[in-house]
Amino acid sequence: MPETSLQAHRKRVVCSAEHAHRARSSQRVMTHDLFSTPPSAAERAAQLRDVLNHHAHLYYVLDTPELPDAEYDRLFRELQALEAQHPELLTPDSPTQRVGGKALDAFASVRHAVPMLSIRTETDTEASGAESFDTRIRKELGLTPDDPQVDYVAELKFDGLAMSLRYENGVLVQAATRGDGETGEDVTHNIRTIGQIPLKLVASGNSQAVPAVLEVRGEVYIARADFEALNERQRARIAAGEKGEKTFVNPRNAAAGAVRQLDPTIAAQRPLSFFAYSLTLPPTTSTSTSAEEQAPAGAQGQQQTQAENTPLEASTQALSQLGIQTHHQALEQLRAWGLPVSSHTSCVQGAAGLIAFHQRIAAERDSLPFDIDGVVYKVNSLQQQAQLGFVTREPRWAVAHKYPAQEQLTTVLDIDVQVGRTGKLTPVAKLAPVFVGGVTVTNATLHNEDEARRKDVRIGDTVVVRRAGDVIPEVVSVIAEKRLHEAQLFTMPTHCPVCGSVAVREEGEADHRCSGGLFCSAQRKQAILHFAHRRAVDIEDLGDKLVDQLVDGGVIHTLPDIYKMGFSSLVALDRMAEKSANNVLASIEKSKHTTLPRFLFGLGIRHVGETTAKDLARHFGGIDAIMNATLEQLLQVRDVGPVVAQSVRTFFDQPHNREVVEQLQACGVQWQEGEPTAGANLPLAGQTFVLTGTLPTLSRDQAKDMLEAAGAKVAGSVSKKTHCVVAGAEAGSKLDKAKELGILVLDEAGLLALLDSHQS
Questions:
Q1: Out of 102, 139, 157, 482, which one is annotated catalytic?
Q2: Annotated catalytic residue 157
Q3: Domains in the chain, please, with CATH?
């Protein structure tokens, strides 16, 4: 680990006399007799790795540091120097390798050797939820009322990010997110920065030898105190004027964001922690040596069994061969190998034990140093787990028992309106700070004006606040008897509070929206990304991460700024090489030559999709005619009703939107305009076509454009209303249904002949 990262990960520790004595003992181990033969570089490096890993375990996992920081740092620097002089001595489990390497371009996919299952959630948050689970387990195990109570392990349900750690020959080789349970993302470079996770497992005491291959499942999280300290640092950076910085919403999101950083040095700055909660033994195949070379005693039988059973069943049998018969024994084995296991884990019996655990943790929840959103019950016996089996991707032998959403009283200090990326206006109650569900809450959503009126929330009210799903704070109700005489009613503003555009509420909708999509800074990123979409003007190299940089850096404010960017502006951005900058500029230049439907779609007018944009362009012929069209004229366009017509009219009634269109044209964005065409006069008007399979020369989009230019509607599914199906190679169920319904089927040649016949 680089020295700077090391300092970021280690706290200052004041050693007691006892700790100082132990430190001197460790120091003696590392100090050599003057009359003895000094160790070789390889021997010395191995000694240093062992000692440093040992003391890191004491510090991060056991919270019993025995070595002063200065001494740890001295040994760390000695190991760094040795590895620099002898690169061949560098090993993956070296403490110097926690942070390092260049940033990744993308995450690699990882297929889990043993699937990462999800756990069913018990919706009954009362004691009866635990009773229902126990009743179900006893029934499925075939137990009678006279049979003994079922043994369970009760654990915390951490509010973090599930992670799988793969160890080969005791060395951490891979860390992967859960993903969909079958496939996740390789985030090894970030997980190695977590001090609690050992880079190498070592058997201690009477523990089992570390198997050739094992996988540890656990949760990456950020403790509450660490989260608050992280946000304090963020606020300091924002106050110092650093660009692109923001505070984090909650610990879980901050942890997930850190794990998915492409640059490990960024992840190392986040105070991540880890708890292990399960052990699996996947098939013993390795990236370095053969399975036979690595397998422990009895593993050949294990491999034969694995070929016959599912990975989960094979893992259970392999654990049994290690002498691990229960889930609790597996946890203790993980602890013995140096992994952190939560101390809030209990072995309990029957429903009464589950209920007692659920109630005890509920009472302790607010005082825990980390967030949880419930507890987890697991049948302890691995044999019984195997007997119970699985349903879809959920084990029958486990359940998550959540707690009711936590509620607290506070005061509404004000009601602001926030503008989302899509222009939605949301009233937000500004609250007197209140601690709810492990988080200090200062804002709560009121969703929309109707909801605010229904709950009758007023400025100055005393309200009940809940963390819905323990994530989104919301105002539940008003304490009417505590209402002040001067409490103020909330009214949704008529104009956007960000850009001043008209705020509109369409008929039948609850939400108000800003009409200044091209102008409003709150919608800037969304507007740019939509404009650059491949179905719009198609700026191929303008992706979301680049847009974030351009907007946050003040390079782009409105759409015309895209075409005003120069080479120097792009090259100055993070991770933007000269070649990449030239590629972006080339894509921008290419996008200047577009079509009117694409341009119209790219403006992001609400309710105007690709098909409507084509209909408008075909009907009016040019952009000026569309911008100046009356409601009555817009209603004459095929498939344009009152809602769409009003949306188009409202958009172009905003002077800044018209100005953006004019500026884009001035920047060189151009298209071919034509004569206005009444849809009813087109040869295929009123007919519905469906495209299926791969055509010999035409792409699906090309065929669609040709049909729509002739007035046809192109649908995605075949029905009795379909007039014709155009089928290419490997046409599937759509072709079968067309034949079943007796619908006309054409190939590409037939389609071209049909279109040619109408042109002649």
A1: 157
A2: yes
A3: 3-97 (1.10.287.610), 151-402 (3.30.470.30), 407-482 (2.40.50.140), 596-666 (1.10.150.20), 682-759 (3.40.50.10190)
